[in-house]
Design a protein that fits this description.
The chain contains eight helices and seven strands; from the N terminus they run E-H-E-H-E-H-E-H-E-H-H-E-H-H-E. It is of the alpha/beta class. The chain has a seven-stranded parallel β-sheet, sandwiched between helices. Bound molecules: NADP nicotinamide-adenine-dinucleotide phosphate (NAP). NADP nicotinamide-adenine-dinucleotide phosphate binds next to helix 1 and strand 2.
């Protein structure tokens, strides 16, 4: 078991997840989970390891229970400890109003955005809980300000999946508080990342003037909130939500 805390970031290879990995690498070893783009994950891992972090990359679909349990088994084997889970992997599902929604799309959306975080939280908590040999830990769920705003005309389905994450955060925070596991969430607003490739071109530019701060946020601005929630400075904070949404 090494001295540095270990953080697992689902969907850690790009966007917000990669920004969290960059911010955490100063004092954590990192598990970068990704879905399919191995070269992107490997390039990030090389960059982080130049800065002193021990980094492994693990391909796993968070919606697949076997792949999730194998990923956590790999963490056990390499690091023998887990201190922080960032439940970040997420998809938009389709883009469009209610009439465009179908059961196949919804099933995949719920699987990645809800089942995935539940499975990862289950595996993480089993390793962290102090009543079963763990040393405690922290789970940060990446929700969305859409969970509160509703996503009308674009992705109510996506917003609803993040509403489930908010409820999960509240419930698990209470369930796990007495065994040393803190559970919090960050709700990003419009953040500059590949995520918006799922929407018609120009969404970021169209949306920016509607935001009180009149700009999109950066992945680094989201990562700063995640790192605070993971840190000892947030030791009495659980079941909390930090909106990083420019005032929306
Ligand atoms: P992104 O740039 O599209 O990156 C998505 C990441 O998730 C990639 O690393 C991708 O891996 C991985 N991934 C996708 N499906 C996966 C699966 N089934 N299993 C494991 N990994 C998977 O997204 P982002 O903007 O950084 O978003 C990250 C999180 O923030 C999501 O939960 C999203 O809902 C939330 N969020 C984003 C915004 C925004 O405006 N960007 C706003 C609010 C909330 P590959 O590289 O292999 O594809």
């Amino acid at each position: 078991m090494g001295d540095r805390p270990v953080m697992l970031i689902t969907g850690g290879s790009r966007g917000i997840g990669a920004a969290v990995a960059h911010a955490a690498a100063a004092d954590h070893d990192i598990v970068v989970n990704f879905a399919s783009r191995a070269a992107t994950a490997d390039a990030l891992a090389r960059e982080l390891s130049y800065r002193g972090a021990t980094v492994i990359t693990v391909q796993a679909d968070v919606a697949d229970e076997t792949q999730v349990t194998e990923m956590f088994a790999a963490v056990d084997e390499v690091f023998g400890r887990l201190d922080a889970l960032v439940n970040n992997a997420g998809i938009a599902g389709g883009y469009g109003p209610l009439a465009t929604v179908d059961a196949e799309m919804l099933a995949r959306l719920w699987a990645v955005n809800i089942t995935g975080p539940f499975l990862c939280a289950r595996e993480a908590a089993a390793r962290m809980r102090t009543d079963d040999g763990g040393r405690g830990g922290s789970i940060v769920n990446i929700s969305s300000k859409a969970a509160v705003l509703g996503g009308a005309t674009e992705w109510v389905h996506y917003a609803a999946s993040k509403g489930a994450i908010d409820t999960m955060t509240t419930g698990l925070a209470k369930e796990l508080a007495h065994v040393g596991v803190r559970v919090n969430a960050v709700r990003p607003g419009l953040i500059d990342s590949d995520f918006h490739l799922h929407a018609p071109p120009g969404r970021m530019e169209r949306m920016a003037p509607t935001i009180p701060m009149q700009r999109a946020g950066t992945a680094d601005e989201v990562a700063a909130a995640v790192l605070w929630l993971v840190s000892p400075a947030a030791g009495y904070t659980t079941g909390a939500f930090i909106d990083v949404a420019g005032g929306r």
